[in-house]
């Protein structure tokens, strides 16, 4: 199933405690976002990559894209203050296609099989998102005391990619913008229209490089894949 992918890459390094965009940090010898790009470069189903970047980092990122031979980048958009703004900036530029994926550039270990599964499900039902089952016991707490233990069997940790029919995500993003609704993922924009969203089981390696300990985990994943 062919698809186009949007990679929001216009974040900061705040939680990573880095003085620059965390995506420019290197895992061994390569910037994080290049690992992510390489997954889509290699995937024959990926027809084009759109990157949301910070204006001031655009030329640096463009240089890396060239240096690492990433030829599928179809365009760059200038990202916004929130992740949703960055995705929206790309959505405004992308020509119509069948299936559109949104994937955090900060998740470099995404599996090609999960991508394919998501694209197929989105083509069939409109929207499909990656997730993994919660392993730990989850409780709610207020003022330092437990108020509820949540039933774990129904809980999922949501990741990206999130895959959609192009027309559906365009409609959902436009409606959210009009209503001033800010979601923490794209699926929320679709959910609020009452459209079903399918969950596709992913894996725990598809971690988002967010805090310094994630870099240690990221290196361990790369080392295990090299063996
Ligand atoms: O900050 P966080 O890691 O949750 O961001 C997820 C992805 O969204 C990252 O790839 C980051 O670069 C991107 N992002 C963005 N624009 C923002 C904030 C985050 O493109 N304003």
UniProtKB/TrEMBL annotation:
It comes from the Bacteria. InterPro entries: IspD, IspD/TarI, IspD/TarI_cytidylyltransf_bact, Nucleotide-diphossugar_trans. The record marks 15, 22 as: Transition state stabilizer. The keyword Ribonucleoprotein does not apply. It catalyses: 2-C-methyl-D-erythritol 4-phosphate + CTP + H(+) = 4-CDP-2-C-methyl-D-erythritol + diphosphate. The keyword Transferase applies. Gene3D superfamilies: Spore Coat Polysaccharide Biosynthesis Protein SpsA, Chain A. Pathway: Isoprenoid biosynthesis; isopentenyl diphosphate biosynthesis via DXP pathway; isopentenyl diphosphate from 1-deoxy-D-xylulose 5-phosphate: step 2/6. Its EC number is 2.7.7.60. The record marks 152, 208 as: Positions MEP for the nucleophilic attack. One of its GO terms (molecular function) is 2-C-methyl-D-erythritol 4-phosphate cytidylyltransferase activity. Keywords: Isoprene biosynthesis, Nucleotidyltransferase, Transferase. Catalyzes the formation of 4-diphosphocytidyl-2-C-methyl-D-erythritol from CTP and 2-C-methyl-D-erythritol 4-phosphate (MEP). Belongs to the IspD/TarI cytidylyltransferase family. IspD subfamily. This is 2-C-methyl-D-erythritol 4-phosphate cytidylyltransferase. The lineage of its organism: Bacteria, Bacillati, Bacillota, Bacilli, Bacillales.
């Amino acid at each position: 199933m062919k698809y186009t992918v949007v990679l929001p890459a216009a974040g900061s390094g705040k939680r990573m405690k880095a003085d620059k965009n965390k995506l420019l940090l290197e895992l061994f010898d390569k910037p994080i976002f290049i690992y992510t790009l390489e997954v889509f470069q290699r995937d024959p189903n990926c027809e084009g990559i759109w990157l949301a970047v910070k204006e001031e980092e655009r030329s640096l990122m463009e240089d890396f894209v060239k240096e690492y031979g990433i030829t599928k980048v179809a365009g760059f958009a200038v990202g916004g203050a929130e992740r949703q703004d960055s995705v929206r900036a790309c959505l405004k530029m992308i020509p119509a296609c069948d299936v559109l994926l949104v994937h955090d550039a900060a998740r470099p270990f995404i599996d090609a099989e999960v991508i394919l599964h998501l694209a197929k499900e989105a083509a069939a039902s409109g929207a499909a998102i990656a997730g993994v089952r919660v392993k730990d016991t989850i409780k709610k707490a207020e003022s330092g005391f437990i108020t509820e233990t949540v039933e774990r069997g129904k809980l999922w940790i949501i990741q990206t990619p999130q895959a959609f029919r192009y027309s559906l995500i365009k409609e959902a993003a436009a409606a959210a913008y009009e209503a001033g609704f800010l979601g923490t993922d794209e699926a929320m924009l679709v959910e609020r229209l009452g459209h079903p969203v399918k969950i596709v089981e992913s894996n725990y390696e598809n971690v988002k490089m967010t805090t310094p300990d994630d870099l240690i985990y990221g290196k361990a994943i790369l080392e295990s894949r090299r063996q």
